[in-house]
Specification:
Length: 251
């Protein structure tokens, strides 16, 4: 399998630069989600929890093109939250974090980046109106999220473009918890993503705080090595999947 990089180097990066509030290690897995889940959990037909998520963007995907992803997520008991996230690289990420923003270091086989996110709860009535097409997508964003959506990416987005926001989806996300204590991990999550077209992705991940990364990297790699699962040759970000999904729909 591809490796996640030298744990000592990652530990030095997070400690010296103070870049991130948390670290996520993740890899795509090949094969159907059901058999992969049975292998990783050791249970036949394990129970998945399912939620729906939507991409919020203009029809022309102005935000994705600028490097910003806006996600509306339906949570348990009818609650909703919205996250506006942008990828960053280097130590400039921390000084560029908006108020209320959170920074996560995402580590994948052969790569890493910083995800700077502004998240907040959304009134369920507003979310329902927007999903049904009866409300404006811009209603979902707080002032801080509007500012980050327009200025958080690689290029600025004219705030007037937010008038054209709409929801794309749903993306159906199913998750099963994988017991990982024997490898020294608090937990690991297997997620199955199904896009509206039917395309799928299966992803395994674990989280840790920055000072634990030197121990978490080899533990996660051992967990993968000791299961008969196949890691994908390269990690394809979910934003790339969305762009391909919506491009196919437009053609």
């Amino acid at each position: 399998m591809a490796r996640f990089g030298m744990p000592e180097a990652l530990s030095e990066l997070t400690a010296a630069q103070g870049l991130a509030d948390s670290v996520e290690l993740k890899t795509l897995l090949a094969g159907p989600a059901g058999p992969v889940a049975e292998v990783l959990t050791g249970r036949a037909a394990p129970t998945w929890s399912t939620r729906r998520s939507y991409l919020v963007d203009t029809p022309a995907l102005d935000l994705l093109r600028a490097g910003v992803e806006v996600r509306l997520r339906r949570r348990t008991r009818g609650r909703y939250d919205l996250a506006v996230s942008a990828r960053r690289a280097g130590s400039s990420a921390r000084c560029g974090t908006p108020r209320g923003g959170r920074v996560e270091l995402d580590v994948v086989p052969g790569g890493l980046w910083l995800d700077v996110e502004v998240r907040g709860e959304v009134d369920p009535r507003v979310a329902a109106r927007v999903i049904e097409g009866a409300g404006a997508g811009a209603e979902l964003l707080s002032p801080a999220q509007r500012a980050w959506a327009c200025r958080g990416g690689d290029g600025a987005v004219d705030e007037r473009r937010l008038r054209d926001l709409r929801v794309h989806g749903p993306l159906v996300v199913s998750r099963v918890k994988v017991a990982a204590a024997r490898w020294g991990l608090r937990r690991a999550d297997l997620e199955h993503f199904r896009f509206p077209s039917g395309r799928e992705r299966v992803e395994l991940s674990t989280h840790c705080v920055p000072h634990e990364v030197a121990d978490t990297v080899p533990a996660f790699e051992r967990m993968l090595d000791e299961h008969p699962v196949v890691c994908a040759a390269a990690y394809r970000p979910r934003t790339a999947e969305w762009r391909a999904e919506l491009a196919d729909r437009a053609n």
